[in-house]
Predict the structure.
Amino acid sequence: MAVARGGVWYATQNTPLLVECPRHYGVAKPGDNTINWVLHKGHRYATGHTTQVQLRHIYKATDPESVLISVCGYNGTCSPISFSDGVEILGMFVLDLSKLNLAQFWHREDDHGRTEYSIKFTLEFECDVSRSALYVRALRPDGCLVGEEMKLPVKLTFH
């Protein structure tokens, strides 16, 4: 009997808690109207689940060093490709380019003699059940965090 109880205890301790995503979550590409949806309404995700989207931004030496990226939500069944009725901007993620060594990225001189850089980065979304939040963070190509992470409060349904 003790072995059976121990087996049940072990199974409950090592079974990931699943949460149902209450809406679609995504990011709008910088300088574009297209949305990359990374978490989908009604899908179940394990606690601590992370999803990543690869993005690229063209930066010119005269541009601001902060890039604003729209974090979006949508409650409908099928997520739209671009901004439409019902798509909400839940917040603006700030990609701080001043934290990057631009020399490590591909670059060239444009027609006006300005250096432009092709900044590739990853946006990562993490479901944190214990805090009822989604965290969004930017990662360099080597996986290191760029700047601050963003916290979005969400209502999560447990299963």
In short: The chain has one helix and twelve strands. The chain has one domain: 2-158. The domain at 2-158 is CATH 2.60.34.10 (Substrate Binding Domain Of DNAk; Chain A, domain 1). The first strand starts at residue 18 and ends at 20.
